[in-house]
Prior knowledge:
Blueprint lengths: L1 E2 L10 H8 L12 H14 L3 E5 L2 H12 L4 E6 L3 H4 L4 H6 L2 E5 L9 H7 L9 E8 L9 H13 L3 E6 L2 H8 L3 H5 L4 E5 L10 E5 L1 H13 L8 H13 L4 H17 L4 E5 L2 E5 L5 H10 L2 E2 L5 E5 L6 H15 L2
Parallel strand pairs: 1-11, 3-4, 3-5, 5-6, 6-7
Antiparallel strand pairs: 2-8, 7-8, 9-10, 10-12
Helix pairs in contact: 1-11, 2-11, 3-10, 12-14
Bound molecules: pyridoxal-5'-phosphate.
Amino acid sequence: MIDLRSDTVTRPSAAMLQAMMAAKTGDDVYRDDPTVNALEAEAARLSGKAAALFFPTGTQANLVALLSHCERGDEYIVGQQAHNYKYEAGGAAVLGSIQPQPILAAEDGTLPLEQVAAAIKPDDIHFARTRLLSLENTHHGKVLPLEYLARAFDFTRERKLALHIDGARIFNAVVAQNVTLEAIARYCDTLTICLSKGLGTPVGSLLCGSEAYIERARRWRKMAGGGMRQAGILAAAGLYALEHNVARLKEDHDNAAWLGQQLQQAGLEIVDQQTNMLFVRVPADQVEALKSWFAQREVLLSPGPVTRIVTHLDVDRHALEQVVAHWKAFLQR
Length: 333
Ligand SMILES: Cc1ncc(COP(=O)(O)O)c(C=O)c1O
């Protein structure tokens, strides 16, 4: 199977599984798991934050991030298509009584600061209290410019808001911009990182922030059911991924760019391609046919009028050559 639906579909490699089997463990609720502690220390070091906390999923990390910033009746400003607004089952509102204030993102994935400013509520009993700006980097594959992040960070200081980055794919931004994680994370108060996207672990996310913030988050994580015990076997996969799977994300970016060029030469319209995501226009009346065409050829896609294709460590150039050949055959059928 060539699976291009998402970079979440990767399987742990033999070497990653070896690292997991060799992990030293302890009870992480007692803070006794040396491998979890090592992973959290490494995430803090890389992000330049004082502390970090390990979670089973990005959704739980984002939820706890919001719960640790906002109280009941507070509000976060967030993109209309952001994961922690649209794709997390409304968790902040349902479980935290935190109101989202979504706004449209610009073409480049940023949230225009004039519009953020216009969405901030005055201090008035009629309104929720605006507390937080939440950005996503990368957003649909788009890397937020550092210059924008610097302005957004200054803006939030002036307006007394906190700034959170959902960095599920932040290492794709790190590699694309050829900077350190700290060079991006310096422009936020808190950052979530997913290990189970392009970095290839089976599970795991991290939340990075100040000591006091992470202590608050630890309580919320426990309440959300995320206090795991011998989680070192999972953290070992994360440590392995941070050591071995970051620089190689460039291959995924190059593969997505290559595939985009090939499909364009075959006559398809490329809507966008950045980092490891490629968006291809498919005429509405061909979507179903394309889906079954590829399914019969052991290629998994999520076709739509704009079909998203995601490259990752389990698809190499050879696999993509097959995809190009199948797509050309589809166009000529
Ligand atoms: C941008 C973004 N944030 C957060 C998440 C949530 O991660 P998880 O699937 O581990 O809950 C995802 C998942 O695809 C995502 O794409």
